[in-house]
Specification:
Helix content is 4%, strand content 60%. It contains two helices and 17 strands. The protein has an eleven-stranded antiparallel sheet with strand order 1-2-5-6-7-8-9-10-13-14-17, with no helix packed on it. A two-stranded antiparallel ribbon has the order 3-4. The longest helix has 6 residues. It is globular.
């Protein structure tokens, strides 16, 4: 997305609190997709995607500089949103949804609780929906029950949520660093991420909803105090959550493979040993 107009107003409440207002717009260039004829050559062309946005927020230093807090609220309207949709046979076609609306609040913070312990965290609430999308691709259930054909081969997603847009998301992190002696530091780290359920497929197929989940990563390391080397044991997804980042109907699903899907699965619980040396 390219920015074409950006206005930023800032106001320093005091030495520790800054507020701002940002107003801008931008666009993503259009193009052609030969797979998207739908019987007409002119359907190959998709238009520029445009956005108008506004954001208001504040950045704060607290607790004598030992803590930072950032808060932002935003609202964006997109027109002619470019979407890539599986055609049910073999290909993904690019076209334009009419309008989407995205608004939300983001909060992130960092606290130096002690000289050895640092805490971080974040919270985001997102309300993202199609304002107008009457010609969206049908999902497998609509094709099977005949409602897709009855509606001219499309479904109306106006008012429905966007894909990859969870209502809530949160994260928390903690790092504890302490010296063992004058030359070596020992550190422990923990990172926790939680996400609300999210639609993965553009057609909002109910079989392609990623349920809410919590994932945690942990790290323990030894490192030289001057930063020359480090040795770490890292655990990723230590709660062994089963999640996926992408999925859709299998190609040619109408030829005996209806309600069959593929998914890109995230890695399970993993352990890594990491060694670094700076020359």
């Amino acid at each position: 997305m390219k920015s074409t107009l950006l206005e930023v107003l800032t106001y320093d409440v005091n030495d520790n609190v800054m507020t701002y207002l940002t107003i801008g717009n931008g666009y993503k260039g259009g193009g052609y997709d030969e797979s998207n004829r739908l019987g007409l050559v002119e359907n190959e062309e998709f238009e520029d995607e445009n956005v108008d946005s506004i954001e208001i927020g504040s950045k704060m230093d607290l607790w004598d500089g030992r803590a930072r807090l950032n808060v932002a609220a935003f609202y964006s309207e997109f027109e002619d949103v470019q979407v890539s949709t599986f055609d049910g046979n073999c290909c993904f076609v690019v076209g334009n949804a009419a309008e989407t609306e995205v608004q939300g609040i983001e909060i992130d913070w960092m606290i130096a609780a002690t000289d050895k312990l640092t805490l971080t965290g974040g919270l985001a609430h997102l309300d993202a929906s199609y304002k107008n999308f009457p010609n969206a691709a049908c999902n497998a259930f609509q094709i099977a029950d005949g409602s897709c054909a009855a509606n001219g081969g499309v479904q109306d997603l106006s008012g429905k949520t966007l894909q990859f847009a969870p209502d809530w998301a949160m994260n928390f992190g903690a790092e504890f660093v302490t010296p063992i002696n004058d030359a070596i530091d020992l550190s422990f780290g923990l990172e926790v991420n939680w996400s609300d359920e999210v639609a993965i497929a553009n057609d909002l197929d109910p079989n392609l909803i990623q349920d809410s989940y919590l994932k945690a990563n942990a790290r323990i390391s030894l490192a030289s105090s001057n930063g020359d080397w480090s040795l770490a044991l890292i655990g990723k997804n230590i709660t062994d959550e089963e999640t996926f980042t992408w999925g859709n109907d299998v190609p040619l699903g109408g030829l005996g493979f209806a309600f069959t899907y593929f998914q890109h699965i995230d890695p399970p619980r993993t352990l890594e040993v990491q060694a670094r040396y700076n020359f």
